């Protein structure tokens, strides 16, 4: 299929971009990135435009090829991709210790797959915060179809400046979303502000491991490929994320690189010999979206730590951060 043919398919699925504007949106998006002369500072300065262009282009494909939750998951042998994704969401809910009736915030919620699952699993009310208009409209439709409108809602906003008063939520989580933030500290600080004191934040974050060598050209190329393939302004080291959490006021209770001991590698769905979801990777846009994921499984970017902050002390096994004071 030609590039324009594939992109016709994207708008045909109900994406946000008019068919005639898709190619120009791809061009504008690509210019943010290293391979097209883009620079990190530009990506950070225009992060909302870059992220929105990316998700306007890819959301329909993600939903078609991946499902309603746009994240990876550690996976057991014999477990389907969908099962592993749900288990990963349940694990997060359990580690957060969610109680029925609590008010929870999902930061960077996509089209609401995790929101619906976690709300149903824990009998909580989950607000999904997202900067992307199209994803929210799609998420509202899916909430209506699932019959969860009373407990799941959406707010269109930037997680760098959230429209909520201080101390609004009993728990906050973010699944593979805060990697889009231009500044980890600024984002975590905002999460800390809206979380009630003593309550917990849990996140699945994308990070570089310590094996990343900034002086190695091949490593830098792989990093740039992941950035363009996933709409990222930069990729931070795990240590930088942990430090930013502490600076933002969280006590880090548990953190783990979930990639290292997953019995089935997280990147397996992108392996052409295993991926069967409509041969997504074989399409031009599929490659545009996924081309870096296999290489990212290489030696330096396999870290997707589960991290938690702000619980009372004593819980040593939860992927969350506890808000002190
Ligand atoms: C990889 S998707 C993950 C979505 C969702 N957490 C899931 O697992 O299905 C990243 C999400 O973060 C959102 N996002 C990125 N930057 C954002 C920002 N500045 N403010 C709010 N949402 C943002 C994107 O629109 C997208 O929905």
Describe this protein's structure.
- By secondary structure, this protein is of the alpha/beta class.
- It is built from twelve helices and nine strands.
- Strands 1, 2, 3, 4, 5, 6, 7, 8 and 9 form a nine-stranded mixed beta sheet that branches.
- The protein binds S-adenosylmethionine.
- S-adenosylmethionine (SAM) is lined by residues 48, 51, 55, 69-71, 108-110, 113-114, 129-132, 135, 158-160, 175-177, 180.
Q: What's the story with the biggest beta sheet?
A: 9 strands, mixed
Bound molecules: S-adenosylmethionine
Rg is 19 Å
CATH topology type: Rossmann fold
Shape type: globular
Overall average pLDDT: 84
Any chance you could write out the topology, listing elements then pairs?
Layout: H1 3-12, H2 22-30, H3 40-45, H4 47-65, H5 81-96, E1 103-107, H6 113-122, E2 125-130, H7 133-146, E3 152-156, E4 169-175, H8 184-194, E5 195-204, H9 217-230, H10 238-247, E6 250-252, E7 254-257, H11 284-290, H12 293-296, E8 305-310, E9 320-323
Parallel strand pairs: 1-2, 1-4, 2-3, 4-5, 8-9
Antiparallel strand pairs: 5-8, 6-9, 7-8
Helix pairs in contact: 2-4, 5-6, 8-10
S-adenosylmethionine (SAM) binds next to α4, α6 and β2.
Could you give a quick summary of the protein structure above?
This is sterol 24-C-methyltransferase. Helices cover 40% and strands 15% of the residues.
Keyphrases for this structure?
325 residues, alpha/beta, Rossmann fold, nine-stranded mixed sheet, 12 helices, 9 strands, globular, disordered N terminus, binds S-adenosylmethionine
């Amino acid at each position: 299929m030609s590039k324009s043919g594939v992109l016709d398919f994207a708008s045909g699925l109900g994406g946000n971009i008019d068919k005639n504007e898709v190619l120009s949106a791809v061009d504008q998006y690509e210019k943010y990135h290293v391979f097209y002369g883009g620079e990190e500072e530009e990506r950070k300065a225009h992060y909302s435009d870059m992220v929105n262009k990316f998700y306007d282009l890819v959301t329909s494909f993600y939903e078609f090829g991946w499902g309603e939750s746009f994240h990876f998951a550690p996976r057991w042998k014999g477990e389907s991709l969908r099962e592993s994704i749900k288990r990963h969401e349940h694990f997060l809910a359990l580690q957060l210790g969610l109680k029925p009736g609590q008010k929870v915030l999902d930061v960077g919620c996509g089209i609401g797959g995790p929101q619906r699952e976690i709300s149903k699993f824990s009998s909580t009310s989950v607000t999904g915060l997202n900067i992307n208009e199209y994803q929210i409209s799609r998420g509202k439709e899916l909430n209506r179809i699932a019959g969860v409108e009373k407990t799941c809602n959406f707010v269109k906003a930037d997680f760098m400046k959230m429209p909520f008063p201080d101390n609004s939520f009993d728990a906050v989580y973010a699944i593979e979303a805060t990697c889009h933030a231009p500044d980890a500290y600024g984002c975590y600080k905002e999460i800390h502000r809206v979380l009630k004191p003593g309550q917990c934040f849990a996140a699945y974050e994308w990070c570089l491991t310590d094996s990343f060598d900034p002086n190695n050209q091949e490593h830098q190329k792989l990093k740039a490929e992941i950035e363009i393939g996933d709409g990222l302004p930069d990729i931070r080291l795990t240590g930088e994320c942990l430090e930013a959490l502490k600076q933002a006021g969280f006590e880090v209770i548990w953190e783990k690189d979930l990639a290292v001991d997953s019995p089935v590698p997280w990147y397996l769905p992108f392996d052409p010999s295993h991926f069967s979801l409509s041969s997504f990777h074989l399409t031009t846009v599929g490659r545009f979206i996924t081309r870096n994921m296999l290489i990212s499984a290489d030696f330096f970017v396999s870290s997707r730590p589960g991290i938690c902050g702000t619980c009372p002390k004593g819980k040593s096994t939860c992927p969350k951060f506890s808000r002190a004071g």
